[in-house]
User: Fold this.
Amino acid sequence: MRRPLCVVILGSTGSIGTQALEVCAEAPDRVTVVGLAASCDADSLAAQAERFGVPHLALRSPPDRSPTFPAGTALEIGESATVELIDRAAPDLVLNAIGGSAGLHASRATLERGIDLALANKESLVIAGGLLMELASRHSARLIPVDSEHNALAQCLRAGRLEEVRRLVLTASGGPFRGRKRNELAAVTPEEALRHPTWRMGRKITVDSATLMNKGLEIIEAHHLFGLPPESIEVLIHRQSTLHALVEFQDGSSIAHLGPADMRIPIRYALGEPDRWSGPESRFSLSEIGTLDFEEPDHETFPSLQMAYRACRRGGTLPAVLNAANEAAVEGFLAGTIGFLEIFHLVDRAMNEHTPQAADDWARLLRVDRETRDQVARWMS
Assistant:
């Protein structure tokens, strides 16, 4: 019998992290959690460490007060705490569920150490996909997608070889504003944007779903993961969120992945891959769903997809600009500094004013990320 997989979960107090711990609790004979990291929620981190007996912990920011951590736990604090955690815990696999570009450093560190990476941080691949894929290849580390759509694509691709693929199809629920026109979005509030009809997610990714930027980032993510050009990656709006992805092969056949809108399923697959674990979810019933609807995205109202295609085609540092400008603009929207439609305007402006450079240098990518954020912040002030 194989020993349990030793896992570190980064972003453990967020939506993906907490669901990953639920999956680990289902299979203690298969998984041992050896490390947890959070940004600043020390109380939740301490509770998780107590429940799962986790010996290694990390916090990016010092806590306002000192919570009581279980006896014998080692706590790292600071910007480099996540990497120190990975080194101390020596896991077989790191599940990176850190939100936004803050997760890039951990993705890089994991792959540089030859550790398998279950990636729920799409921004890592958007900013530095070429460098990360090269690291994974050089160090013989697996990079397993956790995003529901890319996890679904990976499963569908088990039915054939990559060179046999004609196109990949990602689906999107359309978010809370599906069907609205541009003039109906000028006055929407952060509270309205955060009411996602299907998925339970963090604030930033929920706003990205409302603008369809999340799906734009996923186009770039799929391009790096599967090596297909952007013109072979399509997006369809599918309000039921039942069909997560589809692969069309050269012979005309298509393989689709269907299932409940439950992130524990792709998390379980990523932890067990290539094996499948049984889970407690209820049986999936197509007869209860009844109908599956699909429609083309409204590119005029939601220009994020076209921006992402443009960034993916041009490559270089332009995807990093797209991501940084979007993160800064979403932060401004959630703070009430700008309106919803200004998110699109600021991202487009940042891309138009940037002269793309080669994305072959970590320092350059980090500098472009920082400079873009600063520039967008000045425009919003």
